[in-house]
Amino acid sequence: MNEGLGSPMPRRDGRIKVTGAARFAADVKLPGLLHAALVTAPIARGRLVALDPAPALAVPGVARVLTAADMPRFAAVTTPPMATAVQPMQDDVIRFEGQPVAIVLAATPEAAEAGAARVAARYAADAPLLFSGERAEVPSRESFYVFEEPDLARGDVPAGLAAAAHRVAARYHQPPRHHNPMENSATLAVWEDGRLTLHTAAQWTYGVRYGLAGALGLAPERIRVLAAHTGGGFGAKGYTWPHQLLAAVAAQVTGRPVRLAYTRAQMYTMTGYQPEVAQEVTLGADAAGRLTAVRHASVSNTSLTDDYIEFAHAGSAGMYATPALQLSARMARTSLNIPMAMRAPHEGPGMFALESAMDEMAHALGMDPLDLRLANHADADPSDGRPWSSKKLREAYGEGAALFGWRERPRQAARDGHWILGTGMASCIMTVFRFPASARITLRADGQVVLEAGTQDIGTGTLTIFPQIAAGELGIPIERVTLRHGDTDLPETGGTFGSSSTACVGAAVQDAARKLRARLDGIAALQPASLGAPAEAPEALLRRAGLADLSAEGRYEFGRPFDAAGHAGSHAMRTFGAVFVEVAVDPELGLMRLRRAVGSYSVGRIVNPRTARSQMIGGITWGWGMAAMEASVVDPALGRFLSKNLSGVAIPVNADIPADIRIHFVDEVDPHAGPLGAKGIGEIGAVGVAAAVANAVFHATGRRIRDLPILPEGLLGAGAG
Amino acid sequence: MQPFTLARPASLEEATRLAAAGAMPLAGGTELLNWMRLGIAAPARLADISRLPGLDAIAPLPDGGLSLGALARLNDVAAHPAVRAGYPVLRQAIHKAASAQLRNLATIGGNLLQKTRCAYFRAEESLPCNRRAPGSGCAALHGLNERHAIFGWTEACVATQPSDPAVALAALDAVVVVAGPAGARRIPLGDLHLLPDAAGAAADTALRAGEIIVAIELPGPAPRSAYLKIRERESYEYALVSAAGALVLDGRTIRRARLALGSVAMKPWRLPAAEAALAGLSLDDTAALRAALEPAFAEARPLSHNGYKVPLARNAALRVIGMIAEGHAP
């Protein structure tokens, strides 16, 4: 049976996704449905002085306008699962542009939208607070967003730098970038007999349950959260946002089902974004290129009310062997909405800086950038000396370099007409996040298998991978496995984020399937088949035993206290890789295009090479966006994201992505990360790409670009003479 | 979006009468509906002209030129054999515009009436913008103006016109034929779009109340022509700068040059002095070509964040000549 771990099963959800048959949260309809439209503050900071709903109520079809006065007082909640500590519509303070101040409810979406445009609100505006590294502060450990130490020091960095034969010190910067998923977040909320049901766009159904239970003071069991399909997440739908809370309350107040769907503009202010990050990296190396010290300091912007922070040094903590390491992360408050984890958080921004600096060091040393990485390979975790759970980064470097032809590349930039071709590479690293999970598997006497887990489908391949694992364990064709998912009535799992689902939910599925097999074996032992009979199918055994079905529950757990990032274990867990790119630069026109790329990864066992390859191509595409175009620019006078639509914010299109992207996985099983031997791969593909591109631009033109994105303005005239 | 009524005029005359009474003409709908969604326009009435007979015809003119019916879809214009053979600059400009799906809906007449892509103008709510809310100021003048004008702006408005086909049509000396309550008239494409004035800056075009574009007339073919569009992504993106060029050559010598730049002003920006200076130069004398172009850019007035557009536009103009010389166009 070639359908278990390691088989390249095609996506089972491919057809419903491309035909439009898959139903998303905003597709759900109920009788008596009210459509909600939010009125949002147009100022970055200040106070709501007056709000007159009368003109909105005059619009035909508008049923109700809810203001802060209509809201219950929400209880204090932890972040996460709530995205922000301060909920909207509880007072008259405006803390970011786009903050909801009223909800218009109407019989049609058009009437609600027309009503929202007519609500008359007056504001007293204060000056916006803009990003400044000068105001950096240490985050509060009260927030669960602060899951790492803001400071980490090992060894003597000043001494390491003083002893270095070569030093590199440089500053790097990237602007805010939004997730921009295809599906705008939406929730349909309905109350029945004191129980709340939500159909919602979510990466974590159980998280929405816990968030709303806390805010509304309800027992979690009274809230059911359904997310059949989520149209892209990337971190924007990981936690509980205003569309879920306000839809629930509006449905409660009106006694009718309420659908609240964000506009595209609202996606920019109520689902987070990767923050602005300013970084400084200082490296010292001896004459042979061995690092003597690594210093990495970063400041990222956060909101007025929450301590979200980007641990940009997360990669530097684990990447290279060095006797001295000094890392710090700080945050600077701004009057923008809260930033949020975005594919790939922490290592994504941080590795742009570290891997650009490593390229600068290679240039200073006159050393091949790949050789510099190999010379500094960390055989144990450089931050605490623990052994790795598994690591085949040397193989990933070597096999990736061979696929790319790195060693044979032209040392001087090549020309192709007006284009100058440059090559660059970077290392990749990602934290391994793990969350407990459970799953139930039921074999029916007709041979069908039902697999149940609360986990979500955000487009990453989980609808294929979990049935694939079950089918492989049970030795049956995948066609006989049905997955029920996306529902808090099903066994609990964690969020589909942190590159965790395949390894963790998959482990629970495997456990359930093995327990089911054990129960089948037990039945077979009690009721042995006649001697010499051919092997019996499990469903035949059930029928012979007179059972309609047989279930087993599986779990994936690890020790307490909760330690998602694996800091407390005996082994340090990371995923690793290397990315190689060739870019073309036309300095007269400021143009830059990706010609080809190779991503080579050491990430544990690959459960499904086909969906895994898609994930990595998506990650490299995501990284190209970071390198070449993405920026959510903030108007300094207005203190708002200037463009809040996809025609004003560039993200890559198909035409930007060459066919020649090759993905390679080193043959590897991680014996410590979990029973599957797998680790997460959802995010590492996006890591390192921006640095590899900037390094290739340097190779092509001699111009070092340390501010992302790399735009025509920055490339014009590069390499002249 | 506000409620509106939809009229379906049966004739051009009825359409212009409705338009004169305040109805906004609706053709492909790819732009007008954006205005209505964003609150840039809130017409009480639309006049759907998309089914008016005969207005999508592409036909030769007696003088050797070509008439493009205003309702011809962009992709149909680009695919027409006469455009393919005689007007590569227009074909290329269309293929670089919007997306394939939009080009299947958008009309060549409507495309010329696009409003600026200035992010302040296009915001989901009204920001300081004289073009959107007269008298509210121009947030871009001292704000984020990387993509804004380097020619022909005023303190009231620093936006640019975004149409790709308009730049090609400007280089081709196209004429816009309009019908209106007072009859038909012809507007040279270079006079269709209005630069901002010192105060209001609200009027985009020279069209008068009730006037509807019925055709765009091209003079004789310009087989040696090309369009260059510069943008940070490869497709489905507005230009940072674009350049349209049409040359008449005698061997490797330029007899006549026509050049227009896009996304540098509120109208396609012709370079008449440079065009004159290019006449008689060899395609192979890059230094002389560059010198002929240079004075036009000395007149540029960049804003606080778009100084890069001046060398970029100059390089684009030079490159488009090179594209024609290298035979990028038939």
TrEMBL record, chain A:
Gene3D superfamilies for the chain: Aldehyde oxidase/xanthine dehydrogenase, a/b hammerhead, Aldehyde oxidase/xanthine dehydrogenase, molybdopterin binding domain
Coiled coil: none
UniProt-listed InterPro entries: Ald_Oxase/Xan_DH_a/b, Ald_Oxase/Xan_DH_a/b_sf, Ald_Oxase/xanthine_DH-like, AldOxase/xan_DH_MoCoBD1, AldOxase/xan_DH_MoCoBD2, AldOxase/xan_DH_Mopterin-bd_sf
Keywords attached to this entry: Molybdenum, Oxidoreductase
Occurrences of domain Aldehyde oxidase/xanthine dehydrogenase a/b hammerhead (ranges): 19-127
Pfam families: Ald_Xan_dh_C (PF01315), MoCoBD_1 (PF02738), MoCoBD_2 (PF20256)
SUPFAM superfamilies found in the cross-reference section: CO dehydrogenase molybdoprotein N-domain-like (SSF54665), Molybdenum cofactor-binding domain (SSF56003)
Domain of life: Bacteria
Name recorded for this polypeptide: Xanthine dehydrogenase family protein molybdopterin-binding subunit
Annotated source species: Falsiroseomonas selenitidurans
TrEMBL record, chain B:
Keyword terms: FAD, Flavoprotein
FAD-binding PCMH-type domain ranges (all copies): 1-223
Entry keyword annotation includes rRNA processing: no
Coiled-coil zones: none
PROSITE patterns from the UniProt entry: FAD_PCMH
The protein's name: Xanthine dehydrogenase family protein subunit M
InterPro entries reported for this sequence: CO_DH_flav_C (IPR005107), CO_DH_flav_C_dom_sf (IPR036683), Diverse_Substr_Oxidored (IPR051312), FAD-bd_PCMH (IPR016166), FAD-bd_PCMH-like_sf (IPR036318), FAD-bd_PCMH_sub1 (IPR016167), FAD-bd_PCMH_sub2 (IPR016169), Mopterin_DH_FAD-bd (IPR002346)
UniProt cross-references to PANTHER family, sorted A to Z: OXIDOREDUCTASE, XANTHINE DEHYDROGENASE SUBUNIT C-RELATED
